[in-house]
Amino acid sequence: MIKKILITFSLLYLAAIWLAYQPQYLPVYIPIYVPGYISVLSAITFLMYAWDKRQAKRSSHKKVNRTPERTLQLLALFGGWPGALLAQQLLCHKSQKRRFIVVLWLCIVVNVAGILSLFFLVG
What we know:
With 123 residues, this protein is mostly helical. The chain has helices spanning 2-20, 33-58, 69-90, 98-122.
C-alpha cells in the first residue's frame, strides 16, 4: 500500500510541475526549463539506481564498481528525487538502509519547499 502511495506521489509531483508551468500560469521571471530539468534529472536518477542495482547483484560474484550513495543522494537533492523514489520502490533498491532513506526524504522536503516558494513567495 505504501509503495503505491509513494509511486503515485512521485508521478503526481511531476505532473503538477508540468501543469503549473503552463503559459497562462507562468510568471515571466520563472524559467520554463524547470519541468524539463526535473523530468530529465529524474530519469537519469532512475537509471543510476537501476545501474547500481545491477552492479549490486553482480558484486556477489565478482568485484564491480558501484555508484556511491553520495552520488545518488546528490542527484535527488538537485531535483531528481521523483526518479529516486520511483526507483527505490519499483526496483527495491536502497529501500532498507534507514540513513539513506532519511537523507532521501530530506532532499524531497528541500525540493518541494523550493518549488512551493517559487509559486507562493515569489508569485
